[in-house]
Structures are given as structure tokens and as C-alpha cells.
Amino acid sequence: MNSVSSIMTPDPITFKVPSTVAQVVSELIRSNITGMPVVDSSNRYVGIISRRDVFAHPEETQASRIVRNEPFIEDSTTIEDAAMLMLRERRRHAAIVDKDRKVIGVITPQDFLRIVEKDYGDRVVKDLMNTRIFPLWEKTPLPLVYKAMRMSGTFTFPVADAHGNFTGLLTDRDLFDRIDVSTVKINDVETLSHDDPWSWSSVRNVVTYFIEKNHLQIPEEPAEVITIKNPTLAHSNEKMRTVARRMRDGNFNQIPVTTSLKELQGLLFDLDILSVFRGKL
Fold first, then answer.
1. Closest by Cα among 217, 231, 207, 221 to 159
2. Which pTM value belongs to this model?
């Protein structure tokens, strides 16, 4: 069995504590990433911090309070064991460390899709998809969508009309892109220095931190205005060979699963796909 080091992204961006949440936000924006390993002053792994951790704790100011102290994965760990750990812990980011506990890589569920396509291509979508999903009504006001994400820890919702017909997909990224942060002054918060070249429009993907801290307003528009109306779909009886490639090519974390009549049956998440590796253990 190949080790996880064969599929990891080597030499990842890391973050040091102690530091502030605002500095975390700045690094996520600057590096265009959704999460990163956290290290101490000796560069030893201490945990993971992600955009969604910031989303869940917008009131916190110290990064150490929202770092998730999750078990690391050693570079000699098999791909199958790494997949099972991520699936069991529901982790979207995992740090790969060497014998000295120094971070040498990072993996996400996307890194496994090429193997799924090659070795598990005959598996059927309906055996892996999640059917326990909650659709949002297309007229739900966006401030309520934000609250639903915060309270449920769910960041992807299928959207339906008043008759329950599937009309599209809505994610946290779509919501954040709708929020205007242009009125926030740099010196109002500690995130960016005055000579920082990154514009405030790039804050949108992690803007939850500023929503409550700076009293930004989420527009009171219905969910349908930001819904992805024609998302890429998968069929419940489709083979993973084609669906894994579709998700990999589009860099999709999830894909709606429908019948031939376009009736929604569930969502296929890249994290849930890792269950295919269970049979090899």
C-alpha cells in the first residue's frame, strides 16, 4: 500500500501561534486557501485552523482559542488509513508530519479522487451519497441563511421552490460573495497593514469574522438571488469513475445527485467518498 506522502501537497503554508484570528484571516486571504496546519515556536504541529473555524467563532480574537487540536497523520501512514481517519473525524484538512512532528504536507479529500477514479471506478454514486440533507426554500432571506449555517455547521444547501422542486445549490462562498465590505476601513481592524496589496473585496470568503465584529449587514434578499441555478449534477446510478473525474476537474467539494427526472436524491460529498477505502483495511 502506498503511503499518504505520495498524494499529499508538500511544504504547505503553516501558521504560528500565539497570534490573532485577524492574522489568520489575513493569511487565508493572502494565500487563497481554506485551511492550514498550525505550529508552535519550534515548528511542531499543534492543530488545524480553517475558514470555517473562523466562521463558527466570529467572537474570538485569539487564534489559539479556535485551533482544533486534531491528531496528525505520519508520513508513513497508508492512504487507506489516512482516508479512514479523515472520514471518522470528519476532517477536511489533515497535516502530514515526519518523525519529529514537523509538518511536511497537507491533504484534503480532493487528493484522494484520482485514486477513487482509478481503483474504485465501478462503485455507484447512490451507495456513497448523503441523503440526510435539508433543503432551503428559495425565498429564505440571506440573513437567515447565514444563521442556519452558523447554527447547523452546514455550509452547503440544496435550494427548492415552494413545491419542493430542486432549483439549485447554495454554499457559504456564494453567501460571502454577496456581502459588501467596501465600507470597512483598514484601520478599523488589525487584519491588513496599510501597505498590504490585497484588496478588501478578497475578504469576502472569510468575511464572517467581520460581519459581527464590524456590524456588517447581510442584504435582506432571498436565497434564489445567489443560488447556483444549473450546478453540475450526478446521477444516482452513475459510476464513480466519471463522477470522481468530474469533481476533480471542477474542484467540487460536493455535487447534487438526481434521478433521470432531475429530482434531488442527495448530495455526494468528497469526504463521504473516502468510505470506499474501508474495504481495503
1. 231
2. 0.80
